[in-house]
Amino acid sequence: MKNEKAEAPAGLIARGAERGADRVGERGSEAPRRATARRTREHAVRGIPISPGIAIGPVYDTNEIPAEAPRRAILPGQVEAERQRLADAVALSRKQLGKLKARLGILPEEAQEELAPLLDAYILMLGNSRLLRGARRRIEAELLAAETAVGDEAEAIAAQILAAKDDDRAGLRRRADEVREIAKRLTRNLTATPFRSLKEVPEGAILVAEELTPADAALLDPARIAGVATEEGGADGHTAIMLRALGIPSVLGCVGLTETAQRGDQAVLDGSAGTIVLRPGEAALEKGRESLTAFARERAKLAKLRRLPAVTTDGEPVELQANLEIPAELPLIAQAGAQGIGLLRTEFLFMNREDLPDEEAQTQAYAEVLEAMGSDPVTIRVLDWGGEKDMEALSQGIAPTHAGPNPALGLRGLRLLLKRPELLEAQFAAILRVADRGNVRILLPLVTNPSEVKEARDIYEKVAKRLKRKGVHVPEKLPELGVMIETPGAALAADAIALEADFFAIGTNDLAMYTLAVDRAEAEVSHLYDPLHPAVLRLMQFATEAALRLRMPVSVCGEMAGNPRLVPLLLGLGIRSLSMNASAIPRVKQAVRALDIGDCARFARRVMEQSDPQRIHELVMEFGAGAEKG
Ligand code: PEP
Ligand code: MG
What we know:
This protein is α/β, with parallel strands linked by helices. Helix content is about 50%, strand content about 10%.
């Protein structure tokens, strides 16, 4: 799982394109000159706007980290296991290359022509090839570890190719390189080496990559990185959420970017417009500078809203809280004027580490957050592992090593915690230990069934009793236990789930993904990912009404909540609590303060009568534009 995303397709595309150009060049074509021209002229790439702000600076494309594979021998009893490791690495490599090949269709034709044969050659080498036959033989006959066997066999084949009597020296070198390249990929997968280091990104640079995982994004320093642009990724994936949380101007889903961007190129990135202009001419640069000034001015204006209440013109208070993904955001939360944390994603505790955080480490982490937040409410969501939230610690035998045919539908969220109750128990215990230091609630992720909530509550109460027996002070009335409504199943069973829950938080990111069967982090289907789709809105309405009938608190904590244009609709549906990335709070507050609840309710009725997604968009954007201006 882990290394499936840690591959280096960007490098492959860049190298492949160059190599392809050489090959055409040998035939005397115009292609090399065209390729060079493509890389010297101003070139704009459009993507998905992710995190607002302007960045002007040099491009820094991320590099592969060389996979360390010291020579290693094995014992005769380890041969079978070693052959299996090799088989797993081959399967993973095939999957990575297959994914890359599927993406070729969206590249310019020239790039496709250059890359397709190369990828085919790689895939062929992962079949019944001499490389693999030789590596398997070396494992068995020479008792070598899989990576040593692959390396040795690749070098032997490369040496033989280069020794051939052929005038086409460039062609021979290319073939030898191809064998080495596939061996490198196998070694990377065998040693689970991530493919890049983000430590060397120079200050003020715009980071350009094929793909960034949420764990990569968590390592970025917003004080150093001016902006981020990637080829992969969708608007509401966790990488996008992390980038917004860090306030780094970002554009994801920029098709063809890594092919044309080169390290050191000047670039202007506009996170609101979703564009990156490489090698800008004077006019584009000037426009970028103007936008940068306008953005800073707007931010200063919004900062003045911090102390003003979030109340509609007719006096209805609206709770505006922050989502927190990493503790580094705590100062931002205070600056934004949030009324507490509406969603603390605890995944950060499990990221970028090789072991699991124990109860004590978790207790300390929660205590720090609660102390920073004083008496403001903090809703801690228990671990939501799964899908794109790829975590090293959990892969060490705790999470399923085999993700199954549909990881998003498999053992993730609360399902995993109920299967591994020791994880849930440690988390409940850590929260209960610090519960009296602040105003805390607990939230359960990815629920589809009332019985799951019941089961979790039983564990919760058992943990509380155990702590009390040990003499730990636990509040008489346990912190509330709420449920994320983020699957159509949960939304449509909301009335039954409400009987088991103390509050609801509607997670529109996953709700939209599961309702529309569109991966929220997948650039190629991002045009279909639409939280305003009537199917999603109807499910939200159903769940909200189920909660309101029982006078049970309900909030929205998906990315929708941070879009000022959507505030009238959400208020009109009866929502009075929104949790979002901290930097979105001022603009959402500005919208709330400009709205009348009666108008919002009438507007929401009009929207909910519609079943055409396009028409809903028009209505929402038109009405929302007024609110956005304040
Ligand atoms: C959601 O799904 O809307 C949500 C808030 O949870 P996450 O984005 O962490 O999956
Ligand atoms: Mg979710």
